[in-house]
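Worked example (supplementary).
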Amino acid sequence: MAIALALAVQLAQLALVLLLAPLLTGYVRKLKAHLVGRQGPPLLQPYRELLRLLRKDVVLAESASWLFRAAPYLIFATTWVAAALVPTFAAGLVFSYAADVIAIVALLGAARFMLALAGLDVGTSFGGIGASREMMIASLAEPAMLMVVFTLSLLAGSTQLSSIAAALQAPEVGLRVSLALALVALIMVALAENARIPVDNPATHLELTMVHEAMILEYSGRHLALIEAASYLKLVLYVSLIACVFFPWGIAGPGQGAAAYLAGTGVYIAKLGVAGFALAVFETAIAKMRVFRVSDFLGAALMLGLLAALLLFVTQAT
Amino acid sequence: MALQALLGCVALLLAAAAAGIGLAQRRAATPAIYGVALATSVAALSLALGALLAPPRLAATLALPIGLPWLGAHFRLDALSAFFLVVANLGGAAASLYGLGYGRHEEAPARVLPFFPAFLAAMNLVLVADDAFTFLFSWEFMSLASWALVMAHHRRSGNAAAGYLYLLMASFGTLALILAFGLLAGWSGAYDFAAIRNTSPSMLMGAAVLVLALAGAGSKAGVVPLHVWLPLAHPAAPSHVSALMSGVMTKVAVYGFVRIVFDLVGAPYWWWGALVALAGGITAVMGVLHALMEHDLKRLLAYHTVENIGIIFIGLGLALAFTANEMPAAAALALTAALFHVFNHSVFKSLLFFGAGAVLTATGERDMERLGGLIHRMPQTAFLFLVGSAAISALPPFNGFVSEWLTFQAILLSPALPQWLLKFLVPAIGALLALSAALAAACFVKAFGITFLGRPRSAVAREARETDRWSLAAMCTLAALCLVAGVLPAWFIDALAPVAQALTGSHLPERHGLDWLTIVPIAQSRSSYNGLLLFLLIALAAGLAAAAIHRFASSRLRRAPAWDCGFPDPSPATQYTAGSFSQPIRRVFGTVVFRAREEVHMPAPGALDSASLHVRLRDLLWDALYVPTARVVAFAADRLNAVQFLTIRAYLTLVFGALVALLMVLAVWQ
Amino acid sequence: MIDRLALDIAHLCAGGLVLVSFMLLYQDRLTGLINTFALHALVVSFSVAWQAYIQQAPQLYITAAIALGVKAVIIPLALHRIIVRLGIHRSIEPVVSIGQTMLAGIGLVALAVMVMLPVTAQAGTLAREDLAFALSVILLGLLMMISRRNAVSQVIGFMSIENGLILAATGAKGMPLVVEISVAFSILIALIVIGIFLFRIRERFETVDIHLLHQHRGEQP
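After joint prediction of all chains, the assembly is encoded as:
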């Protein structure tokens, strides 16, 4: 019985992230439009876009191979699984022991690997430029992410997200510079990984500034729908990750009953709202940086991650 | 009994080598020799597996009355040897299977056939040697056999120089090992390992042995800065031999290091761990950065060997540091991670070299800038190479990820170490490891993407044909192993338990009592990973998506020219090349590490000459370390040149003087 | 509980100062640099004020007020005006790239921690931490001075060193008089140094300007 319930919670989470993902993106777009004084697309526009893409034909480039057609499914699947393993409204998910946070990062890495290959598959210069820049950004973002993980595991004694969330809720953790540094570093990584301003611009089709969009330029129809869904999911994943680690309040524990789960869902949606608002404000306020400034930006995130780990030693030694 | 049978296998391989000399000119020789090598390797593999999985209570030993008269030749088969024998013979069997097909394209079989089984035999001998003389003899035999294979195509440009450099570095490594064993044997001159184990050297002596072992075994394994020969020599050999050298011989070198440092020297000091792990971290990053700058497919793979050796040495260094601080569980974790990576790397590196060999046979090209689009012409090879690329890039659910994950878990235990230097150093090494993993993914996007994807960049790439069935069978086996070891790592980690137990006094929690073959380094609440579940979840999610799309979405598909923002260009030259792919990374890292400079020559408006871009990279290590050494040697040789033109009387005087001097030393010493 | 919160906030301030020092290293524009320096001074003054509160040492409030008034408001405003008036080029030329500087900075922080923690083994928790952080801030300030060509950033590096000194002095209890004198003295020094640098800035940038003009006209200088 307990197993069945746990399984149900896990499946509910799988469904929840998938359902909420387009909404979060639509909400951020709407807010950004409002902030610059435009009306903006309707909140549910991303759902419509996905449905429209699913109905359309696929126009496949003549030089595309099987990899190009298989990649969207793999990208979507790995991102979805990764997003479903991050505690959102309930901790102690039944499959959470299958992958700790390092494995989740690696899953995203696998999705990116496939996406970059798909970018190279057709043999156009845009796909190449996107893939090349994406891998450069990832080569700095991943170490920064792992340094954040290092700091968290130092504090919580675990790399399991549920355990980290539980450990950071304890009062003896207190206010810590290291946590603040890790939070900043993680936000910087999240911005880069989700192709947000200032690293990439999710709204642009200006060739020389785009990274993510350049890779998926040749995709259409259902393939594009899957890739778009994966990128919505990735945004939800990072927001959930930040929320679960740094703002772990309101997550329902394992087996706390339906009321706790409902409350947890409510709190989670509220967290998504706050994060989306912060993202929209930040993106409106800041300009995109040159591609080669990104290395400094992510280098700074890496340094912050390292610094967080260093400063933690100071506190723990005393 | 297993030991005797293993030595029998070695004898059989040596006999095959001897037969190879005589028969090499016949057409039937190639399948015969590779067939014998395959059968023998499989036999040795099963023997070694038996010794590893059902270890006898006492390690089997054997002494043969050959070699030095007062010493004899000692052999021993313990858990450590058995594990490395598994790695070596698995690689050997795969290479032999591959060779059955690939060997038919060999233009000079007489230069390959005798040395291939001899190389396999030598590696097996190193792994069972139980005295310094046998060990060094087999080691040198292994070096020479592989050198002969490197020189198989000695007329091709660059190969002779690569062979020369290899010979020099191999001699240097053996010299360091001779000195290390000399120190270990001490005044008594006890050269068998059992006697060495019983003596414990002083701190200074132990440190000297560590440094010498790191230099000796490290130069063979490719630890920076002693790696320079490796990316030249490994690709120069025929591809299945490249796979053996990169996948197996470097592991034999790792075995030498582990044998000396973990088994023979005695208790380590904490800074040994710092030194080894730092060397590993630097090796990992330098290896992958060099690989990113490389456009030669096989040389790129060879540089990745350097990277992976770095990852292995990080694990070994951590194991030393934990052992020195009496944290056996953590030490066992770090050592298991390193050894599992030894296995994993040997599997996927062999696979990748086989793939590169298939490309080489199909197109005659190693330069990625002239390949492309091979996925259409060689779909099976492309798929298998993709599996290898994903595995080496540490992507779940493949095996490379599991061992790197374990290494990270070991790094995460470092805050418990009491020494401040280690506390600070190990997170920095963790950052280096993460950086190298991320860069490796970038590098393999490049290697696979430029070689197999896109449009063909040359006529040979357009005309390529799928490789033969033997080669595909070898690659399939290894690719399946990559997936199995990634999905069911618990089996492999359990098999490593006796090795970790013998060297660190502890081992990882066994899979009994854990659900679903989860692997748990220390405790479940701390971290766990389940490759099988992850794999099933991904398969389920992908299946679900595919089913939903099949059911609800449009399934129509049209072929059309590429969109390319409205400006498609039919010329394949407009694609991204390997050089342009790595340009951002070159700009971020290369300006510091390689002093990378780009020179753009733009013709004046109206001028007809073409524009050009030159990239200049400098290997700072080569300039700082090897060039001055070469200069000193050349200077000394110049000066000593005079000694070659003396009279006979002068030569006799020299000999006489040397004799008297030695006698005087002897007199003074006593 | 309150005690713990007090310690946490002090820790946050000190660590925040190290972070702002890194932000100083990261800046590549003069305006951003000056604003970040104002933040640096703000953090220091808040940290000193907090120390005054938990140590119940009212004289430290004066130090905090001086830091706030002079370094967080007056000096940044003055620098902004100078930049406008002298028409100084707004970007900072690093001698070594920003990434490398930050890497070196991390190394320096590690060094500071490794030096300070064993030495101060018997001191209190907060004092040890403060000393380690203060040494880091000082080293980062020095790093900033040597790794940037721009004279203004050198001045700011110098003043961030001084902030580090204040942090060190307030963290160690029982030397209020020394603190005040040193603060007053260091501000004096800072003002003198700024004055000297101002002349140099003018000289330097005029020569640089001329050099640039030559290049733009395509003449051989």
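Two points are worth noting when inspecting this output. The mean pLDDT of chain B is 91. DSSP finds 25 helices and five strands in chain B.
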